[in-house]
Amino acid sequence: HEFIIRDLVRETAKGGDSWQEVRGIGFLRDGRVVINEAYPFIRDLDAIPIPDRTLLPKEVEYYNPIVKRIPATTALTSRGCPAKCTYCCAPTFYGTRYRYRSPESVLEELELLQELGYREVFYRDEVFTLKRERVMQICKGILERKIDMTWICSSRTDSVDKPMLELMGEAGCHMIRF
User: Fold this and answer.
1) CA distances (Å), 65 to each of 60, 122, 164, in order?
2) Helix 132-144 vs helix 162-170: angle between axes, to the nearest 10 degrees?
3) pTM here?
4) CB of 146 within 8 A of CB of 111?
5) What is the largest CA-CA distance in the chain?
6) Which ranges in 25-131 belong to alpha helices (H)?
7) ω into 49 cis (within 30 of 0)
8) Roughly how many angstroms between the first and final C-alpha of the chain, as a whole number?
9) In whole angstroms, what is the distance from residue 52 CA to residue 176 CA?
């Protein structure tokens, strides 16, 4: 994850072999595979900076057939899922403890994306709707700030209700993957 790369860059910049102690990496030492201790999951997702999309190549246009409005981008507002569905790799990759960005952080990113000219966001969260009050705050914030952005998210059928779905639709959600 992001902090592994940060720590690896910091240790590499020091010179020497200290980079070999960074948690979460694997490498070859004298022809043998070395796998370091796992890096703990990031608890405070607001600590991760919003990706700088201005660094993306200008000539490449992101495309996805389910996106309605171009240009579009992807974003992540949460990690983890408490469900342990046998067909899903999310618990292994992201853990079973649900962690999420604050509504303010999500809205700040949406405003920045709108300034950059994006018109749609495909949220890559495993379960965007797991915290009802958070979803409601995000949707109300989109409407209050007049953010003109459509979006897609993923959910579970047991984590939505009619008022939430109606507000999500008003706030620009045009597709939910269950």
Assistant:
1) 16, 11, 26
2) 30
3) 0.85
4) no
5) 60
6) 90-94, 103-115
7) no
8) 26
9) 26
Q: Find tokens 């495309």 and name the residue.
A: 63
Q: Is the pLDDT of residue 152 over 90?
A: yes
Q: Is the pLDDT of residue 65 over 90?
A: no
Higher-confidence residue: 149 or 16? 149
CB 139 within 8 Å of CB 104: no
Percentage, residues of the chain above pLDDT 90: 71
Phi-psi region of 101 (alpha: psi -120 to 50; beta: other; left: phi over 0): beta
Query: Which phi and psi angles does 72 have, rounded to 5°?
Result: -125, 160
Whether the Cβ atoms of residue 74 and residue 121 lie closer than 8 Å to each other: yes
pLDDT at 84: 80
Label the pairing between strands 150-154 and 120-123. parallel
The torsion angles phi and psi of 86, rounded to 5 degrees, stand at -65, -25
How far apart are alpha carbons 4 and 29 in whole angstroms? 19
Q: What is the mean pLDDT of residues 58-71?
A: 84
Residue 89 has what pLDDT?
78
Residue 11: per-residue pLDDT? 93
